[in-house]
């Protein structure tokens, strides 16, 4: 499968100083949010990105779309460099993001119809190539009557679908969806997920779905990528990762998922302790302070990403295929 979007060794550093101090030579101390992130998203592929709050999921999504600058590594979209060594022009025309808070990402002063067609004006799309607000609403299963409403008049599910419709206006090749089911009822979550998988089938859309909900990602994604404290710790086909997780963090995440059967107890592998602050990131393996199998050298030696089988990547000294 050819890569539609590819990241190689991407890092994101932000200055700790503000104002004039950040402009001085050297810029002062910097905070490392992401380090050595490599990830590929294939054409018409759904990739799930998982991690606790503070792991860097949203930072990675914003960096991919040029909303947060990267400080190292390379990015390619449709085979062309983007970012500091390339241009974001093609990416901004053919990639879109559905933000975590749909209502906050929509201007409260504009009606839904104007919000949906605004991307055409921003990108100077010829009128002959523009779709109506009614067509865009129909594509996400909403009535054309919603075009006259303001975002504050929409339900959570409707607002989420409007954000997806706005993202689809320019017929992107890639959509990044940040927590697309957060705050929604279970029935509405199912509708949103069915919408996204349907768009992949009908439009050939590639998706990066960011979520805490492992059960949801297990249902919709082709591959899973696991982030912990700004480091990619495991990647692989979804079925293989759930059947035999390689990294202790991945095993803990899966084990801590609620079981639908009340007679079954969760395995005693739930993650202990709080995720450390990025200001005091542990040396060596970043997960060693919470890892149930950590050895002494894990505290001092950084693990490299290793391929243990085709498509199975893990950043752990002790991981083995069983």
SSE string: EEEHEEHEHHHEHEHEEHHEE
**By CATH's scheme, which homologous superfamily of the largest domain applies?**
P-loop containing nucleotide triphosphate hydrolases
Q: Under the CATH scheme, which class of the largest domain?
A: Alpha Beta
Low-confidence stretches: none
Architecture per CATH nomenclature, i.e. the level-2 architecture of the largest domain: 3-Layer(aba) Sandwich
Largest sheet: 8 strands, mixed
Question: CATH topology of the largest domain, what is it called?
Answer: Rossmann fold
Comma- or semicolon-separated keywords:
322 residues; Rossmann fold; 4-stranded antiparallel β-sheet; 8-stranded mixed β-sheet; 2 domains; 9 helices; alpha/beta
Describe the structure.
- The model has no long low-confidence stretch (mean pLDDT 87).
- This protein is globular.
- The two termini are 27 Å apart.
- It has nine helices and twelve strands.
- α3 packs parallel to α5.
- It folds into two domains: 43-70 and 79-221, 3-Layer(aba) Sandwich (Rossmann fold), CATH 3.40.50.300; 245-322, no CATH class.
- The protein has 322 residues and is an alpha/beta fold.
- Helices cover 26% and strands 23% of the residues.
- The strands form two sheets. It has an eight-stranded mixed beta sheet, with helices on both faces.
Question: What is the structure about, briefly put?
Answer:
This protein is α/β, with parallel strands linked by helices and 322 residues long. It contains nine helices and twelve strands.
Write the layout of secondary structure elements.
Elements: E1 3-15, E2 30-42, E3 46-50, H1 57-64, E4 72-77, E5 80-82, H2 89-94, E6 95-98, H3 112-122, H4 133-139, H5 156-168, E7 174-178, H6 186-203, E8 206-210, H7 214-220, E9 223-228, E10 231-237, H8 238-243, H9 248-255, E11 306-309, E12 312-314
Parallel strand pairs: 3-8, 3-9, 6-7, 7-8
Antiparallel strand pairs: 1-2, 1-4, 4-5, 9-10, 10-12, 11-12
């Amino acid at each position: 499968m050819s890569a539609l979007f590819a990241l190689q060794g991407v890092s994101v550093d932000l200055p700790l100083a503000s104002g004039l101090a950040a402009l001085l030579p050297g810029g002062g101390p910097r905070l490392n949010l992401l380090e050595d992130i490599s990830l590929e998203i294939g054409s018409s592929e759904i990739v799930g990105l998982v991690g606790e709050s503070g792991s860097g999921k949203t930072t990675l999504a914003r960096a991919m779309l040029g909303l947060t600058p990267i400080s190292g590594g390379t990015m390619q979209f449709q085979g062309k460099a983007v970012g500091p060594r390339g241009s974001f022009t093609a990416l901004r025309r053919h990639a879109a993001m559905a933000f975590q808070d749909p209502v906050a990402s929509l201007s409260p002063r504009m009606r839904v119809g104007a919000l949906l067609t605004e991307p055409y004006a921003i990108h100077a799309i010829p009128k002959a190539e523009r779709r109506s607000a009614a067509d865009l609403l129909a594509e996400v299963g909403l009535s054309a009557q919603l075009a006259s409403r303001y975002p504050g008049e929409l339900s959570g599910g409707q607002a989420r679908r409007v954000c997806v419709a706005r993202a689809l206006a320019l017929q992107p090749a890639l959509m990044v969806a940040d927590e697309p089911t957060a705050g929604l009822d279970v029935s509405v979550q199912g509708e949103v997920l069915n919408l996204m998988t349907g768009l992949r089938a009908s439009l050939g859309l590639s998706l990066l779905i960011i979520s805490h909900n492992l059960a949801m990602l297990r249902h919709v994604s082709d591959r899973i990528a696991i982030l912990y404290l700004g480091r990619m710790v495991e990647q692989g086909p979804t079925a293989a990762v759930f059947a035999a997780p390689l990294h202790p963090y991945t095993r803990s995440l899966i084990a801590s998922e609620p079981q639908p059967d009340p007679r079954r107890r969760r395995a005693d592998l739930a993650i202990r302790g709080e995720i450390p602050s990025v200001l005091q990131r542990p040396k060596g393996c970043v997960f060693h302070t919470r890892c149930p199998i950590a050895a002494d050298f894990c505290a001092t030696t950084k693990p490299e990403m290793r391929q243990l089988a085709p498509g199975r990547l893990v950043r752990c000294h002790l991981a083995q295929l069983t």
